[in-house]
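Q: What would this chain look like folded?
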Amino acid sequence: MKEIIYKAKKEIYIYNTLKRRKELFIPINKNKIGMYVCGPTLYKRIHLGNCRTFIFFDVLYRYFKHLKFNIKYIRNITDINYNFNNSFDNKYYSYFYKIKTYYRKFNKILNIFNLLSPNLEPRTTSHIIEQINNIKKILKLKLAYKKNGSIYFDIEKYNNNIGNYGKILNNINIYNQFKQKNYFSKEKKNNLDFVLWKNLKSIKIIKWKTLWSTGIPGWHIGCTTISNKYLGNYFDIHGGGVDLKLPHHECEIAQANVINNNRNNLAKYWIHTNMLTINNKKMSKSLNNLIFPYDIIKGKFKITNNYEINPFIIKLYLLQTHYRKPINFSLKAIKNTIKTYINLLNCFKKIKKIHPKKTSSNNINIKYYFILCYKSINDDFNIPLLIYNLIKINKIIDKCLNNELKISFYDLKKIKKLMKVFLIDILGLKYLSRKLYKKKIKVFIKKILKIRNEMRKQKLYYYSDKIRNILKNYVSIKDK
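A: My prediction, written as structure tokens:
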């Protein structure tokens, strides 16, 4: 087993958005990994698309820990932003109350999905001095300019002197995407320029006084400052959703190259998860089509016919599509995932029922299946292929249970370990609890009884009596 893990560490390939190709993963420092993932902005609830990103990077975190890498995982919390102005009614108490509420809800949702906590969750508001110092560095190098108390990063000067904004992450027609006027465009020299410090003297939410003005730092400078502080000027992995590539990650790279006086682009590997769509449309607040995890879990979502769906079924559903491909949400796909989930997680119950043989196993090479699973996840974290291989192993367990295959005690122990390592330790799935099964059965029976009452009203007594006879062993029925 140690030999297989050692080999797996040497063969991980990751698609690097920065280079637009798969690359062999080689940590900057041997056996140590620094990983930064853009966390939530706490002025709204996180939706299922956000959860997809956090679930995927949790699998990365778990896998690197499993391979005995010394990994430091940082996920920031953006607890101040210009968008907060309207959300918090410009009142201090509203700001503090809502930030605390959204943060608590964020953690609760991630706990429901059984996500591990990162090593640190630094907040933007706890790093204001560091952000101001970084802005001073950019101003000193004359790659930013002042306008009405605000500070803006100068993209034209940056492109002429240091970098290549917009082409690093292959953003085609990047200038066309910024032609539309936005809230701060009147103050900018160029629509591509972005805010480092915003003068918000007239706003009554939390703000800070500087030599330039009383205001707040820009969104992008917070991430660069925090990642540099805890992971250094150049670290292994920077992750986030594909929607953050432009402008957020482009801005982070530009800032970092200036602040750190290099062209390392902040991180060695940039990894982006794709979007979750509904009816092939991007989820957005403007389209009013956001999917919130609690709505599905609590059975308040129309597309899933108001069924309560276990969070681990939702989690498996999100993992069944490769992280770089979009997912189109549908009830049919969820139903298929329920079957897959039950079949996979039931393997541990089936293993207990198998009577192993004293003789060696026939035609079962457990080492081969271990290698197969590691190869799946090592190929740019191909979790759908890993799940497919686990389903194949589950079929072997079925054959052993039905005495179609002989398996030794030693091999049975290894097959149990394999399923535990990949299903529980790496994918972070859990069994459906007995309480949940009982709850679902009660809900199901209630619905059947409701249908039966409708039949009785329509005088369909033949069918209503049949339903009563089927259910009499499970529930007491008294007709009026």
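The chain has a mean pLDDT of 88.
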